[in-house]
Design brief:
heterodimer, A: mainly alpha, MetI-like fold, two-stranded antiparallel ribbon, 2 strands, about 70% helix, about 0% strand, B: mainly alpha, globular
Chain lengths: ~290, ~280
Amino acid sequence: MFSFCSDPSVLPDWQWFACYLTTGKHMGFYASFGTVLLLLAITAPVAMAFGFAGAMAARSHFPPLGLLGKGYIAMVRGVPDIAFFLFVPIALDQALEWLRHKTLCPDWTAPIRQGNDFVVCAQAKLPLSSSPQSVHDAYSFALAVVAFSVVFGAFAGNVLVGAMRAVPHGQLETAEAYGMTRAQVFRRILVPQMWVYALPGLSNLWMILIKATPLLFILGITDIVYWARELGGMKTGAFAYPHGDWRLWYFLGLLVFYLAFTKLSEVVFERLMLRLTHGQATMGGEAQRKAPA
Amino acid sequence: MSCWQTIQDYGLRSLGIGERLLPRSDFTLCDQVVLIGSGMIWNVYFGALALAMGFFLATALALGKASAHPAMRKPAEWFIFVFRGSPLFIQFFFAYELFVILPDAGLSIPLGVVTVTAGTDMLTKAALGALIVLFFNTAAYSGEIFYGALRSIPKGDVEAADAYGMSGWMKFRRIVWPTMLRLAWPSYTNEAIFLFHATTLVFFSGFPAWRQKGDALYYASYFADKTFNPFVPYPILAGYFIVLTLLVIGLFGLVNRRLNRHLPVETRRRIRYRPQFIR
């Protein structure tokens, strides 16, 4: 990176560190923070959509749909989320490959599950074995995003169902008295009013989502945990920058990163809540009114 | 091999008792159910012990955070902030690296005439090291719950205690603490459930499963990797955890009934299961 980095073994301390912290691998480490932010940026809206769909389905009067929605939002209650993170990507991968196998290789007669193997024809492989590494990476990241979205969609569904129930019933009855249909009541009355009730739960969920991001490591993504282990491990003299076991310091860095991130989110959500409760007929709004101007 | 034989061989495999080698091929449903169930021993061990110890630390943390004195308040606030603000997964990794660095010889703690040598090699084992992390973690989360409950104790209750001449320890023991627990109990139940779920992280986060002695999720993912079929082991795991969750809800419901026994039936608060806490 710097011009003086050609021979690290003779450098004084601060220059050594300047060179060490800007090696290509460290750049990969810094870029993996981008991976975490990308995951958050994609997962949060998709999970909201899943949650909204789940909450709508759970309220449905059509029994199979209602059962499906209730089952979906209840599934995270009894089972650890980590189990879903391990299960969803592999299950989804196999489901997609199976579908492609059925459509692309209809004349294939051998069974797909042969003992302990899952065999599909070469054209049905996802991604194709001829595709470059970047496609493989993108595919596994996409599977991880789906897994996160499914699990957090279920959490969001819980929050949104609670928020929908919290909207005063009189409001809905009044809308019905005005002759609105069920769909109209939902769209015009229920949804606009539920957000104030949903915000505390959703902000909590955002914190949870932030704290779930290191689980990307379990899914085999080269994320910040992977790099922290990789870079922090002991490097012998064979490496350009030999050092002892520094994993403790790398994980300390990650710890501080997450603490700062959650703290920042907390402050932002406090501001947002302050603005949303302004003028509302709730205890929060009342407190703002009574506060000396 | 009959299923009964499998139970004898693998029923306590997670503790290292029984057959040394895990099944390698021809996995039967019985193999999977027994071995994953054997792993549940660790989940229950971590969850129950961390919860039991964390309860007391949480009470201390809540009192500390509510204290007017900065010397008590600041440490409690920071403890809660650090453990609630960072992912449990990273905490496990960090703690493991910390425990590895500690000198192998053990720490010598002089206690007057005798010197206690605490072996630090135990700390790098999941059985103790991960338990400590879970203990601190659940103490921080429950501490925050208890603190919230402490602040919403009705003013009248405390004033009534004062009027009866109670003070200090007696007021705390008879009025403040039971009321705090009663208010906090529904949230605390959720915290307990999520703690049990969080125990599945242990063997995926730095702490090695020594001689393949792992928890339920460790064995479930072992089977999923070997058979390349996730549709059998994970539902089994899910079944075990649903049973465990129902047991926790049942047990905590009993305590909740006792805490609320003085209230008229219709005003008693039922525990409503709302997942809010996760790590």
